[in-house]
Amino acid sequence: MRTYDFDLFVIGGGSGGVRAARMAAQRGARVAVAEAAELGGTCVNVGCIPKKLYSYAASYGEAFEEAAGYGWRVPPEAPQLDWSLLKSQRAREITRLNGIYGALLQNANVKLLNGWAQLLDAHTVDVDGQPFTARHILIATGGTPFVPELPGREHAVTSDGMFDLDPFPKRLLVVGGGYIACEFASIFNGLGATVTQVHRRAHVLSGFDDDVRQFVSSEMGKAGVDLMLSTEVQSITRGANGLEVMLSHGRHLEVDTVLMATGRVPNTQALGLEAAGVAVDKRGAIAVDGHYNTSVPSIYAVGDVSTSVQLTPVALAEAMVVVDALFGERRRRMDYEFIPTAVFTHPNIGTCGYSETDARAKYGKVTVFSSEFRALRHTLSGSTERTFMKLIVDTASDRVVGLHMVGADAGEIVQGFAVAMRAGATKALFDSTIGIHPTMAEEFVTMRDPVAGSMA
Ligand code: NDP
Questions:
Q1: Residue 308 confidence (pLDDT)
Q2: Biggest CA-to-CA distance, the chain
Q3: Residues 6+ apart with CB under 8 A from 92
């Protein structure tokens, strides 16, 4: 029998790769991870974690303004953000997390190779000139921002560059209408920038429930984001006072920074995929079957490099499916239905299951419940922010198949409901659940009257 240097060689030390490496090693496998940059991948270094830290930073701005309504004597001059301090605080925390990832691998006896990995064949990986053999190889190299062809695109930054901008962008243009565009527009607006967001469609957040899309646009607008819909960027040039941006319909803007948040593409370049015979699909992502096996039997791929559901927890779950199949006791498939997700706009979006449009397409008859209100917190805060909640019920089975919220801490609230939804909770079960008073979340168990005409 052929012997290998490792049982599993993981290319990419992000969320999926580190989880797979650690869990495989804990099951007794000899494992190596190759990573050319810092450990933790997009999520830790330029994604979820720094983004959420900046989102918290932005929410303090709102809180200072609202405190006066609660009797706090607020100094007449608004508190000022020390952008340099925020950046260094963030960098310190990210460095700490990089270290934790390293320690996790070390404690699990995973060999960490700092360098660029490339496939040589179905069982061999080259790391900066040194070949290693492995029984199984897992590609978890993630994705990278996509910037469309456009005159002056070199003047724009991507989300990768937003965390360390210098100086703070007083005038920011965000291009795109997806997760990243909406989050950064909200966050930098909250941090004090004048933010314009340009999106080519009539609504932001394609794929989300239409009511959520409209509601969040309206709330972001109230908070100060100037949202230009059905608008495209035609060119960017550097002028004397900043970047000059030509938009469709003859409009023109001058800003300090342009963020292109126009999607992400899988990291498949210079990986030796062709040498090993690993096929990519029509999106350019590594093609995998239901067990994350690529076109080469010994090579697997998980996370953003292969999946269409680009979420850290999905990459983690996919990694566990691979490890369980290779080094555990069972081979199973991941269930992609009812994956909860949050968008950290201000206010947040939390969602689980189907949009109303998708639910009607899948289930036929659905019943819709929705509620819009001012949260108790804002009775005294002076904020005009409103909260929106919506339930979509499969009329035939009474199962809740869509749950959506726009409001403070929506992600925190929806996580718990996602468990109930995966367990098949019916509307009757929601109705029989006692609310926690006074919270916003209780509204999800007290909505009794369907939206008029929704039962069609
Ligand atoms: P998305 O796919 O969510 O959004 C991309 C946006 O860019 C869309 O609005 C799209 O418009 C627009 N766009 C694409 N191409 C062009 C173009 N050529 N010109 C103008 N606009 C264009 O990608 P993101 O980069 O925002 O995020 C990537 C993924 O990362 C997300 O889908 C999500 O899975 C994940 N993510 C998750 C987060 C979370 O969980 N909170 C946070 C951030 C990212 P259109 O709608 O017309 O296609």
A1: 79
A2: 77
A3: none
Could you tell me what percentage of the chain is helix, strand and coil, using 3-state DSSP and rounding each to the nearest 5?
Answer: 35, 25, 40
Q: Which domains are delineated in the chain? A: 6-144+265-327 (3.50.50.60), 153-262 (3.50.50.60), 341-445 (3.30.390.30)
**Token duo for residue 398:** 């009474």
* Dihedral angle computed from the Cα positions of residues 337, 343, 344 and 350, in that order, rounded to the nearest 10 degrees: -60
Q: Which residues pair with 252 in a beta bridge?
A: 246
Pocket probe mutation, ligand 1, options 184, 310, 355, max atoms within 8 Å of Cβ: 310
Here the tokens at position 243 are: 């970047």
Distance 181 CA to ligand 1 centre (A): 7
Q: Which residues line ligand 1 (CB under 6 A)?
A: 148, 176-181, 183, 199-201, 206, 261-264, 310-311, 341-344
78 pLDDT band, cuts 50/70/90, is confident
Structure tokens at 416: 């718990």
Closest Cα partner for 326 from 28, 108, 102?
28
For the chain, the average pLDDT equals: 97
Q: Whose CA is nearest to atom 13 of ligand 1?
A: 262
As given in the structure block, the two tokens for residue 270 are 């210079």
Q: What is the reported pLDDT for 7?
A: 98
**Beta pairing partners, 121:** 124
CB-based burial label for 120 (10 Å; 0-12, 13-18, 19+): middle
Give the number of other CB atoms < 10 A from CB of residue 349: 28
Evaluate whether 357 touches 367 at the Cβ level (below 8 Å): no
Pairing mode of beta strands 171-175, 194-198:
parallel
Top mutation candidate among 264, 339, 351 for ligand 1, by most atoms within 8 Å of CB = 264
252 is catalytic: no
